[in-house]
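Lab notebook, bench 4. Still working through the backlog of constructs that have no structural model yet. Next entry is a single chain of 464 residues. Request: give me the structure tokens for it.
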Amino acid sequence: MDTKRGGGSMTFDEVDEMISSHKEEFLEQLFTFIRQKSISTENEGMTECADLLKAYMEESGIETKIMQTEGHPIVYGEMVRDKHSFTLLIYGHYDVQPADPLDQWVSPPFDPTIRDGRVYGRGTGDNKGQLMAQLLGIKIYKEVFGDLPINLKFVFEGEEEKGSVNLPRFVSDNQELLKADLVYTADGSSHYSGSPLILLGARGMLSIEITVKGAEWDNHSGNTGNIVPNPAWKLIDLLHSMKDENGDVLIEGFYDYIRSPSEKEMELLRQLPFDQKKIGSKIGYSGLTMDGESYYRKLTMEPTFNISGMESGYTGGGVKTIIPATASAKMDIRLVADQDPSYVYDRISDYIKEYDPDMEVEFLGSMKPSRTSADMKIVDVVTNVVHQAYNTKPLIQPSLSGSLPDYVWTSILQTPSIIMPYANFDQRNHSPNENIKLDSFFGGIKCTCTLIERLGEYDKSFEK
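Model written out:
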């Protein structure tokens, strides 16, 4: 590639050369970042990691400050050249999951190691490797091309692995500071086929627990059998009443306000690769029989109603003949664009209260869904960026099947948001032997450079 900017002599060939000649330096910077523990759920190393990240950003010329929240701090940075220029906000997180179980790691989780073309260590893929690729991409761009053609803002939080509990408040309180034309996130995994993947949103989530009580304490199942009611059966009957044999939820109002996918979004789903046998093998379910369009629609455009755990009575070794006093079920319910977790929770609560007023429902947490329209011009721009950076046409998925706090950008900040995973599909994030391929890391650096260049050429008036 030989793309010149502004009549200058610099080209993207020099970006490739810069990455190639500085690989060891870039890897060492990543290794230092990974060695610094930042386990948010255990509050280990969070302040130190935020300080380290701030130092990295300042070395690249980013005006940076640490902003406190009620939890772990947010590292905010900006490079604003002209308030009228296109502004890109880059989001990521510096916190990681605990490394347990330690005995399943081939090499120590906080001592990054290269094996077979991959860097192994906690946070390599989620999200320190992808975050660092973006910072290094910006650093290289400045060294090769000089001034940035756009404004950049950065929000790196320290609580993504514990549900981003303080991010919504932060965004709501700082809307003017965070004002941007596009939010860009490098997080998650690329497609299982190996193709680069663009995600235009994420499903939301509602977590609840249902508790049913019987007698005041566990009873002897012989002495009180047929006398004391068993709450486990009552819970099973309740759960069974909530869905029909086709899996459709029978709770009134559950499907209210769901945004129907556009024809373009459905066409994007139809274009996604689908290998029934391979996917069945990857998820451990050989009974998968649906076609590709149904698979992706159910995975991204429809809500779920999942029982994630049930507990009642004795489940240890041997036999304990009791009628349990309580039974409970935990549910995680994935929501799609325009569904409100509070509204859905109220509908479920109303249903259970009418079914049996003695049953209890507890709200455990929620996250709103998010979706950026596939019809927006900026989606085409980023698609072309990724195509150019990887020499491969990216796949576009209208929504992530899982949940990310993407709604803080699309709902609170009212800004389109695009997620572009740099990490490989088999990164094993949250698991032992988490990794990022070297090619994925260096590819992310180049993709970031390309993104900045092409957004500089983009006339944002097309969006108005």
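Notes after review: The mean pLDDT is 94. The longest strand covers residues 204-213. Flag for follow-up if needed.
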